[in-house]
Task: structure prediction
Amino acid sequence: VTHGLTLRLLVMRWFHYTVADFEESRNPPNGGMVVLERKTDECGAQYYQMTDESLELIHMRPQTKYGSLWSVLSDIRPHLKPQLKPRRPSASSSTNDMPRKKLKSKSKGGYWREYRY
Result:
């Protein structure tokens, strides 16, 4: 149970909707239920997706795999996508030697994901 505005903000943040998508959405009526279903893709990864009835209830369009925000960003700046690089050897590498403008985090599959801002 939640307020309509809180629900719309959660949906916007979770599914990466744009501000324009948020402004087009509506609060659900009293007692309206928004349902998130857990899905599994072909690789076995699990994700949540809103049901069609829930999307109609709050007047939102169906989300894409990465959300509408990522489709807007990839059109504007295609170089912002993360680049995968092979993992460094753990014995010789030190986290203190990394430049400050690079943020590195481990991801699945033995790769480092490097984001440049």
About this structure: The helical segments are 4-15, 19-24, 52-57, 68-76. The two ends are 38 Å apart (CA to CA). The mean pLDDT is 71. The CA atoms of residues 2 and 17 lie 19 Å apart.
